From TrEMBL:
Skewed-composition ranges (Basic and acidic residues): 21-32
UniProt source species: Nematostella vectensis
One GO process term, biological-process aspect: spermatid development
Designated name of the protein: Radial spoke head 1 homolog
Pfam families assigned: MORN
GO cellular component: motile cilium; nucleus
Main subcellular localisation: cytoplasm
Length: 224
């Protein structure tokens, strides 16, 4: 996920405004509906208020990216869809030009994330689906990483437990469709990674390792 190339050109009254066709108010500010070609060749078509993009509009970037949605005082604010230069797409909430609130992100490799966002990052409750395996993570996110309680749902089993820094850590259990549970915990195993050259330093890599404590049978749910 990259936001490189998705920064909009700011329109400051009297400075680098580009060409404009549309409505104006008594003060000759851009006000109402208008079309603008900006100095960097980006274009905007939509609503203005007192010289700022405000209301619904479409902003097209010269690199092929596009935003369609709501603006407030010159910034993406409210609900909108952004098509990014790398082929990904975000549909959801915005606050002052950044992904905030609930939204869905479609990644170039086919992965998807639906859930809460804060300051452009996955943050809060959300579901990430991996396209290649159809594995899903449902749970808590913090600053773009899996962190807190969650579930990794695979084709015929699932892991339920705690996560930290994007990895399973601490107590948890595997639930298998065959009717049993494996209880245990993840601990980080420390390993030194050799440097590529003599000038580089060794890197310490932490890998989560599963340790099983016991296996139990999943109790059947009796129906009346």
């Amino acid at each position: 996920m990259s936001d490189i190339g998705s920064e909009e050109f700011e329109e400051d009254e009297g400075i680098n405004l580009g060409t404009y066709e549309g409505d104006r108010n008594e003060a000759e500010e851009r006000h109402g509906f208008g079309k603008t070609t900006l100095p960097n060749s980006d274009t905007y078509e939509g609503q203005y208020e007192h010289g700022k993009r405000h209301g619904n509009g479409t902003y097209r970037f010269k690199n092929g990216a596009k935003y369609v949605g709501e603006y407030s005082k010159g910034k993406k604010h409210g609900q909108g869809t952004f098509w990014y230069p790398d082929g990904s797409r975000y549909e959801g909430g915005w606050v002052e030009d950044r992904r905030n609130g609930h939204g869905t992100y479609y990644y170039p490799n086919g992965d998807t994330y639906e859930g809460n966002w804060y300051e452009h990052q996955r943050h809060g409750q959300g579901t990430y689906t991996y396209a290649n395996t159809r594995t899903k993570y449902q749970g808590t996110w913090m600053h773009g990483k899996r962190d807190g309680s969650g579930e990794l749902i695979h084709a015929n089993h699932r892991y339920v437990g705690s996560f930290a820094e994007d990895n399973p850590q601490g107590s948890g259990k595997y639930k298998f469709d065959m009717g049993c549970e494996q209880h245990g915990e993840y601990k980080l195993e420390e390993k030194l990674q050799e440097a590529d050259t003599e000038e580089d330093e060794q890197i310490t890599v932490y890998t989560p390792k599963w340790k099983c404590h016991r296996v139990t049978e999943i109790a059947a749910v009796l129906s009346d």
